[in-house]
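Changelog-adjacent note: as of this version, every example in the card shows the full chain rather than a window. The one below runs 225 residues end to end.
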Amino acid sequence: MPTSPIVWKSGKPCLAGGPRLPSASPGFAERRAPRGELVKAGKAGVIRNCRWSCIFCLVLLVGCGYQMVGKETHVPPGLSSIAIPTFKNQTFEPGIEILFTQAFLNEFIQDRRVKVVTRKEADSILEGVVRQFAISSVAYDNSGFVAQYQILVWADFALKDRTGKVLWVEKDVRETGWFRAPPVGVTSGNTGTSGITNEAAKQATIQKTAGFMAERIRNRFFYDF
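Full-length structure tokens:
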């Protein structure tokens, strides 16, 4: 009895009883994805796995009692308000204590974790002394004229509670600032003649320096109590 040929998609006959070819589902060749798509699919799988791993780790941390430490968790115990009276000025720079006091008030007001109130209402009082101020030339132009100035400020701080008990003290806190001198030949209403320190630039630099120091002391208040 003659055997009937079995024809595959390749068009090559295979006699019954001959070697069996591996079966293939219809359209198998057409469904194979290009290599680029396979790579993209692999990357997407890795990203999904990483995402689920991160979520799993967060769940474990929360389950073990850990929590994300936020801004509101670092308020010193028993202190909900602060008073910042005008700092003392022991330097020869007039008005520097006003700039520093204002910078510290702004820093704590913007922070909002404790209320800034008067001395009578406050749980804590931050006292400051601007102890030393120095200004010097640090850079010169090709003609030998001063091109840049440096200022140095030293201050002491003490935090007290409402009874006057000292909670902590920070001494010899130093901050540095720089500003450019006005160009030679340019006069200013603040300087009068060229080559003299621009008073407006100096005051702006002192104010910025006070802001940097205020940020340091604010961090000391909340994070290193």
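Structural remarks: The first helix runs from residue 28 to 31.
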